[in-house]
């Protein structure tokens, strides 16, 4: 027995060279071998016209070409059939599986009253070293809203669970104190609301609307920096909440100090209560997250896959969940466990390549950041802006990449290692007193992450 | 090849065949009409590989021959002749010379060897009147789905039931069913013909009268009427079991005059929104049949229809277009509109003629 598909493909390649392109695409496209029995090949064609034409005009050609590829073929027959290589039972099987194991579509039901998504609960929140401070504070707030940590400010990079945490606080408070009115919004929505109220002369209604809540949760507060009017209104709202010991909860992607354009009075208020950061989850936490997700979806993977995923998908939990969803979906569709290789293929795009940086790359990053010429960093010049950039390069090389002092000196235009030590210490001291410098450093670091 | 033939006949055939040719891009020769002169007749053949037509006309053949040329070119050329006359057609090299009393047209021909044959199918045969077949198809084909995604509903379904031959088509928003009384109906095999082909079949058969011989095979159907042979591919599938969506009961019924309805719908359409929505409000107790349409950009319209109303009060909305499509098939002066409830389909029928039924799904506002 030979591979029908392969033989037919070879045959078509030969036929293609001996007939015109128009003829080939009209008559030979959508054909396949539907059956092979005792030397007789049944060629499946889409309709009667094609069947007639192939039988009358190309019969000999097809037979001849087929025979050159498989000697046992003696004759060719044509039948009309839909081009489907899988047999019908198989299709039915797949269909049945699809119907039986339809992927669950969880209703993303959001309560209109408070905007909270009931999916976000503490039960599904994985606690690890990366977020335990934030979690502990959140628990304290749920126990005594408005008194312990007010305001509560959570910050961390995107996709690490800030929204989950603050919504979970809201949901938990709702459960524990049904009389308290909780409201969740994003800064974007808050701001739109405000703008609308100004447009329609309903600013008093706006004030009343927000002041009637007992717990106010605002997501992505960092966007406030660009919105002047909202900022003022927010300031007053903040004060009124604070005076009445009503709980305020914010999330942001940066520490309040680094939110540019934020006035000190607002900044200091953010910091008045409790601010906790959520960093990237460590390996153990990632394993825990994956296991939780598997449990939720009732779709366990072998340990090696869990280990592989946990070690390769660093950073954002959101992306981790996305990759997991893809794998779960595939598993359910195929109705069997995926092999490690298949998993690797699926998540290939999500894995961030680990970059190697040369000293030159770092210099380039820093030079670009300060918009100075890259070459000038290596020069012997004491111009202030260049000195600063050069010292920054030295600091980063030492602090982040642990390059030895002499090597740094040598690479940056033949400086003495004591010069490098001096620069390193200088920046280190400056960082303690100068928040702008801190901010700059953070931003440079993101450039080569 | 050298022949003499009537200009009018050739022109009409070519115009008819032109709809079938001209759309196939992959094989250029399919844009042509094949012309075969032999014995005492001239045969024209055209196909798009889904439907194929062959028409024979008598001609004085001096020398046999075969050629393929763009039919539309000759048809347009011949339309410059106002009255019917004998024309001489001859082939020299790859040029077809057509000589009329006043002019000479030389038309480029193409290599006819690539022109496909039409499948001649063998199978069960029945004879039915052409007129009835056309009437059946014409009453329903407009309801077929336009998209190719589900081939079985972008088709007309024909099947026998009791003493009728039944024609159905639906696009899942509305459904048209026509029953045609016929003697030999039982031998008619249930067949699903693509709507695009059905339109061509009707167009070609309309010129014929008398009976047509229908031949069925598993994948193909053919019609022979007079000197015309048409064959079409048929859909190998199952037509939806539409009977189950037809409401068994009716709670509200309105009998109205068709012409009134048409006139009022014209007014309503001006104000219908982008979904062509119009709203029926039937209140038999108050003797009120109101139709309402509203478009926030244009305005709104509320009209009353006089008619005999029975049953419960109901408010239900439809796509205007779907209702309008059915009028040519409702061939009596008064029509009945019957509803069950808000989210159930509505049925339109001719009063006193049970052969045609038109069902429309309501719109969900």
Please specify the SSE layout and strand pairing:
The complex is a heterodimer of chains A (449) and B (365).
Chain A: H1 4-18, H2 21-28, E1 32-37, E2 40-45, H3 48-57, H4 59-69, E3 75-80, H5 88-100, H6 132-143, E4 152-155, H7 162-176, E5 182-186, H8 187-199, H9 203-211, E6 215-219, H10 228-243, E7 247-252, H11 264-270, E8 274-277, H12 283-297, H13 303-312, H14 317-334, H15 340-347, H16 359-369, H17 374-378, H18 384-401, H19 405-411, H20 417-433, H21 435-447
Parallel strand pairs in A: 2-3, 4-7, 4-8, 5-6, 6-7
Antiparallel strand pairs in A: 1-2
Helix pairs in contact in A: 1-4, 6-7, 8-9, 12-13, 12-14, 13-15, 16-18, 18-20, 19-20, 20-21
Chain B: E1 2-6, H1 7-18, E2 33-38, E3 41-47, E4 51-58, E5 60-63, E6 65-69, H2 71-78, E7 86-92, E8 95-99, E9 104-110, E10 124-129, H3 130-140, E11 155-161, E12 164-170, E13 174-181, E14 191-194, H4 195-205, E15 211-216, E16 220-225, E17 228-233, E18 252-257, H5 258-271, E19 277-283, E20 288-295, E21 299-304, E22 307-311, E23 314-319, H6 320-326, E24 334-339, E25 346-350, E26 353-360
Antiparallel strand pairs in B: 1-5, 1-7, 2-3, 2-6, 3-4, 4-17, 6-9, 7-8, 8-9, 10-15, 11-12, 11-14, 12-13, 13-26, 15-16, 16-17, 18-22, 18-24, 19-20, 19-23, 20-21, 24-25, 25-26
Helix pairs in contact in B: 1-2, 3-4
Structural class designation of chain A: alpha/beta
Q: Average pLDDT value of chain B?
A: 89
Percentage of residues in helical conformation of chain A: 55-70%
**Using CB atoms under 8 Å apart, which protein chain pair has the greatest interface?**
A-B, 15 and 23 residues
Main sheet specs of chain A: 5 strands, parallel
Strand content of chain A: 5-15%
Let me know the number of strands of chain A.
Answer: 8
- Low-confidence parts of chain A: 98-108
Mean pLDDT rating of chain A: 82
State the oligomer: heterodimer
Which structural class best describes the helix and strand composition of chain B?
A: alpha+beta
Question: What is the radius of gyration of chain A computed over CA atoms, rounded to a whole number of angstroms?
Answer: 33 Å
Approximate strand percentage of chain B: 35-45%
User: Helix and strand string of chain A, N-terminal first?
Assistant: HHEEHHEHHEHEHHEHEHEHHHHHHHHHH
Count up the helices of chain A: 21
Strands in their spatial order, largest beta sheet of chain B: 5-1-7-8-9-6-2-3-4-17-16-15-10
